[in-house]
User: What shape does this take?
Amino acid sequence: MQVNFKQLRRAIENCVLIAPKKASLPLLQLIKMEGKRSSLVLSVTNLDEHYSVSVPVRKGELFTTLVPAEQLAKVLRHLKNETLDLDVERSDKLEVKKIVINSDMVFKIVVDNNVADFPAFPEFRKPFPVTVHNQKVLFEVMKKVCFSTTTSNVNKGYSGILFNPNENGLDVVTTDIHRLSIIKTKVAETSVPFILPVEAVKNVMKVFSDEAVTEMLISTGAVEKKDDISTPSALTIKIRSENAVYFSRLLKNEFPNYSRVLDLKTIDRSWFEIEKKIFFDKLKSVCDFHSTHKIVSGVLDFVNDVMYIKASGEQGDVIETDIKIRPVNEDLSMIKICSLNLRYLAEAISTMGVTVRINMNAGSPIQLLDINQEYRFYHLIMPLRMDHSLVSRKKSLTAA
Assistant: This one.
């Protein structure tokens, strides 16, 4: 059969994303390859995720076999022609022994014929639709909040992204307990809240980066009650395009009630505006000074139209800088000083737009806001215990 090289390579690259490089079950490192008259269907799974893609072919041949994913990917990296011939070499009993790839070079790959043992795709029950109005912006939103997840917490929900319906659209939420990202948007709708693992999110964005999603469904189970609201439990997500279908297991929804932490009225009433590039460059310099520290404890001190940043290292080394800010509806007579992990702040700023809004009150989380036509991005960072030696103003310390 004749196959377009670019289409086949793209399909194999997507399969390699899903197939584990190391697995206790070697079968999971294989791609199920089904030859048909006009297409070649490739399927792969790691048990949590399942992916299948159809590649158009000419002069197709009927066969089904299993091929090592990494081996097939390595072969395609060496080919350059726009089209290639993909054929099968059979035994006397007509069983497939090898896959033969013929382009500017010839490769023969030994196959595995234990097709019956290959895991089946999950059953899909009681589906609820997820409506996607703008796929490009939805993927942008998902990418923005990935950084504030964690795999270290016993609550596995924190290793994923929560998609939660609200009165005006959708909340896209992540947290690692120390920080919280919330994006409010109307680019998608769901009636059932669900949590998609962050690794699955990254794979979805790559697999469907150049394909339009035509269908997204949530498979549900028993009804669960959370915050006095009863909703079906989300079990599996199914995403389909014209040529591909993707399944992923969903995480149990054990997210905290984040709406109690986010004070929309506070940040929409008064704030300081800061140019992102200047802010990020300054924070990066401070964090680079403490390059070996995961937590860079620092103090932000707001004085009129200047924000002072100061941080110290374990050996008593100190770095300080300042940034011009623009107060909006702020009472400049109030003392605003806070201590936080500056590395967390830098990561959040890096995902935001040209201008960043920042608001804080003593003892409360730092609130950041990025406004876009398609969404509002709120980010909260929990404060650290104040190190008064880092306060820039003596009068602030005295007044406090």
Q: What stands out?
A: The chain has three domains: 2-117, 127-257, 264-399. The chain has eight helices and 26 strands. Confidence is low (pLDDT under 50) at residues 394-400.
